[in-house]
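User: I'm writing a tutorial on reading structure tokens. Could you give me a worked example: one chain, its sequence, then its tokens, then a sentence or two explaining what the tokens reveal?
Assistant: Sure. Here is the example chain.
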Amino acid sequence: MGMIDSDSEAVQYVRFQSPHRNSRGHFTGVFGLVNNLAREGKLSDEQENFRRCNNSWYDAAYTDPSTVDPHVYDDEINPGAAAWFKPSATHLLARVSGYLEVLSAHGVDCRALRSADPGRVIYEDDVQIVVVPHALDATAADESINTRR
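And here are its predicted structure tokens:
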């Protein structure tokens, strides 16, 4: 847990995600991983209280991109879209450690990724970007070209 991948010295963006693909073929982010544990009834009362309190704090602290663009996470339009924190979002990043502790207590792996260029930006605000990863973006473009033939 806590493994860091970096593709340059000029690291700008940060994402915390599972190292394993989910059933849709994507890498679930840190908040989704903890929320999945809650849905499965696996959190202690203390962990559930932490999750609810901090999820509410995050909801108030920054914009959910899907409230601005309802299609931002649409897999047909933006395959594999994922949110990344900007380095200036220190107030948001500071609370992630609590989520990582919950995941660690349940043996759920989560890794930190850092990248100056994580993909094609489809949404941006003052604390985050949402991108379609370059590899998936290229695959989608190729599939689009192949379907036109």
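What the tokens reveal: The beta strands are 4-6, 13-21, 27-29, 82-85, 111-115, 119-124, 128-133. The chain has six helices and seven strands.
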